[in-house]
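Q: I'm writing a short explainer about Methionine--tRNA ligase for a general audience and would like to include a description of its predicted shape. Could you first generate the structure from this sequence?
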Amino acid sequence: MTNQASNSAFYITTAIDYANGAPHIGHVYEKILADAIARYMRLAGREVQFVTGTDEHGEKIAKAAAKAGQTPQAFVDDLSLRAFKGLWDRLEISYDDFIRTTEGRHKRYVQEVLTRVHDAGDIYFAEYEGLYSVGAERYVTDKELVEGPDGVRRYPGDKDPPELRREANYFFKMEKYQAWLLEHIEANPEFIQPAGYRNEVLEMLREPIGDLSISRPKSRVPWGIELPWDADHVTYVWFDALLNYVSAPVSRGQSPDVIGTAWHVIGKDILKPHAVFWPTMLRAAGLPLYRKLVVHSHILAEDGRKMGKSLGNAIDPEQLVRDHSVDAIRYTLLREATLGADSAYGEGILVSRLSSDLANDLGNLLSRTVSMVQKYRGGVVPQAHVPSEREHGIEAAALALPAEILRLVNDLKINMAIEAAMNFVRDLNRYIAESAPWTLAKSDDTQSRLDTVLYTAVEGLRVASVCLEAVIPAKAKELRVQLGLGGQTYTLKGAWGLTPAGTRVLGGPILFPKPETPRTDPAEAPAPTDKKEKQTMTQTEDRPAAPAQTAPTHAAPSDTPAATEALISIDDFARIDLRVAEVLAAEAVAKADKLLKLTVKMGDEIRTVVSGIRKWYAPEDLVGRKVILVANLKPAKLRGIESQGMILAAEDDQGNLDLVGLTLDLPSGTKVR
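A: Of course. Here's the predicted structure. Afterward I'll give you a sentence or two in plain language.
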């Protein structure tokens, strides 16, 4: 801790989970995401507090408890402590406080804030009629409903359509603060991230939002916190739950102003309560506004569909933890998911990433380094001698890497921060292959050179372990133990040469044993979709797109001229050069509402590609993503920008676009065949 910035307080929270059912993979991702951010900040020397917990009041919980034949309290006690807290502990979620909304410390603070807001004149009693979503536990507008396959309109995620309810409740004057909130969000673009969710909230606030019903008659919903001025009403679950972000630190003797440093990590399905209800509640209570709302998207099944028990593609977190190491789960989820877009995840993706990144790249680097130190230097880390240009380059990369990682974390590009660390690991593997210590060991004339190579590999692994510690905390520490560095801790800052020469490496078991590739039952393969390949680069600009090719419904006779002309030979296909490319940067093309300018990496080559996908993808959602590129397409100028290829996408009958991607994490430049 060397400066004021590094000592600054950092407060991070997750949404508190609604304790009416077991946690799902979305809960797991959110907790791991927030935990990784908290750990990065601790490694950077900041004073971090991290709060999570469970939301335990409301109509849904009362109904679920009755169905289970339990009291609401017994029902939530089991789910909160066993299902949620128990799982977070096994996943090594490093929370500082686990708060439950049925705790006395939380109830007292909720009633204190309610009294304050009521006494200020911002709560009133009125009768209201409207559509009520039992699933979301709030009144919803007709505009928020979505028509399902059965033609019934529901609030997204609900099993049942909303009920028309008319009852007398207490209301919070939320609309009073609408103009203030709109102005704040417009003036602070970093307040809600990613930007797509910020834009969604701005759209909400440009229309009337109304006031917020904040109570329920106790005669109908007895399970809740009583209003301090009217014991016949209990507090609406959102006005209760959101206050956990302040009640937790206040109960530990801190000032409620700590909320002004908070990053709230939430899922996109609870955007409105956190981006509209919560800020206006804070304003009315005289509390500072939180620092940042971090919104993540959903985790999809490996087949790209929404997970569901009825579809047979849901992931059971408990089974996942039984089958795989905690750090493998943490790493693969964080590496695969991006905040701004729903991300696929499953056994095959986990195994592929575990095999390539953790076993092949990191684990193999540790094994071969320890083995060579033991074989050539009796297990003792040698003193480095005169470094070559290559060693100077590795040292420079090691010194710059922590700052780059922290920059990416602050920009909420966690997957790219991980990739930056892994690129350093891969370079160390290349360095060993280039240096060939096994050859250096054969000659007396190259012994000092061998010392330098071995020291560089050991110290590089130490640096990598620190850069990856927030993601794989247990394995990062185990790695350092095998290097002989014991329980030594390090801060995430640029440093080189911290492994003392003379350290005795210990070695140990394989860091990440390579898993067996899961077998796929053909009968369980997802059904084919109606999507068709679509060329997206030039459809709306300077030249027309080639017509999309779709499979005929019925096989045409082989002697039909039209069918024969539509077919291509294997030689024709061989002329098309399809390559894996990684998007390094993306930006909107000025005065072209359909175009994005992408900077992509294809092997060692960097290219610019212009693509008409702006309607479906925000620029920040594409960075770090692997796409399929037509690499030998003749360059074309679009809006004055030379486009050097075309990315492939598929489109369904409703015009929804999906980029053609990969299940395996193949290197950029890989040929698609």
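A: For your explainer, you could say: The longest strand covers residues 123-133.
Q: Perfect, that's easy to follow.
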